């Protein structure tokens, strides 16, 4: 990974920009007060779902809560409508799917994975908007030397991962020892028409 730490004109940090794709972090896409308000509204207002998944041949709880909306859903919460407007304007992609993750505390996590490309329109990026407590994302190359990038995702920040990066890197939010409050992420994606999965 090269060029970590460069900034573009808008204050966006370019964490990666090479043949393997592009990853950028925009620190203050949403101001702190708005981010706090959105966090509260979503935390209290969304019907959060726990999931089960098979791991090591046992069924276990997905270690976080989730929700999903298509953007044309008449029941799209107002906060998500506003967030969609901001993210579409900032990144210029026709996002039509919003996956929500709630990490209740330091024990919640998402295991290393790449987002499923089968149901994302080829070439379209994924944007993760963070609200609430700061968690660290670990982004690791799939191939040796498996370089690792650690990015603190503060409230109001937006991390963009280009489509190609999902072929070459896994990303994760690992459990941590230090106690931490809840964090919500909004994952904006451009899906094939008709696909509704919340697939990460
Ligand atoms: O919470 C995050 O920022 C990452 C979530 C994620 O990787 C996913 O939903 O696929
Ligand atoms: Fe993901």
UniProtKB/TrEMBL annotation:
The keyword Translocase does not apply. This is Alpha-ketoglutarate-dependent dioxygenase AlkB. Keywords: Dioxygenase, Oxidoreductase. Transmembrane segments: none annotated. InterPro entries: AlkB-like, AlkB-like_sf, ALKBH3, Oxoglu/Fe-dep_dioxygenase_dom. Pfam families: 2OG-FeII_Oxy_2. PANTHER family: ALPHA-KETOGLUTARATE-DEPENDENT DIOXYGENASE ALKB HOMOLOG 3. Residues 94-192 form the Fe2OG dioxygenase domain. The keyword Oxidoreductase applies. It comes from Rhodanobacter ginsenosidimutans. One of its GO terms (molecular function) is dioxygenase activity. It comes from the Bacteria.
């Amino acid at each position: 990974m090269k060029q970590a730490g460069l900034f573009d004109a808008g204050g966006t940090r370019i964490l990666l920009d090479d043949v393997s794709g592009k990853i950028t972090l925009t620190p203050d896409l949403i101001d702190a007060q708005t981010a706090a308000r959105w966090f509260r509204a979503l935390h209290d207002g969304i019907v959060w779902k726990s999931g089960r998944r098979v791991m090591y041949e046992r069924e276990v709880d997905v270690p976080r809560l989730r929700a999903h909306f298509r953007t044309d859903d008449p029941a799209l919460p107002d906060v998500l409508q506003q967030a969609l407007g901001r993210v579409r304007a900032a990144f210029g992609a026709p996002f039509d799917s919003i996956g929500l993750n709630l990490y209740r505390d330091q024990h919640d996590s998402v295991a290393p994975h790449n987002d499923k490309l089968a149901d994302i329109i080829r070439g379209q990026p994924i944007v993760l908007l963070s609200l609430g407590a700061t968690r660290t994302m670990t982004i690791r190359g799939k191939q040796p030397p498996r370089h690792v990038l650690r990015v603190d995702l503060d409230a109001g920040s937006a991390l963009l991962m280009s489509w190609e990066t999902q072929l070459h890197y896994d990303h994760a939010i690992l459990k941590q020892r230090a106690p931490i409050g809840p964090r919500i992420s909004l994952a904006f994606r451009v899906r094939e028409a008709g696909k509704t999965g919340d697939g990460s």
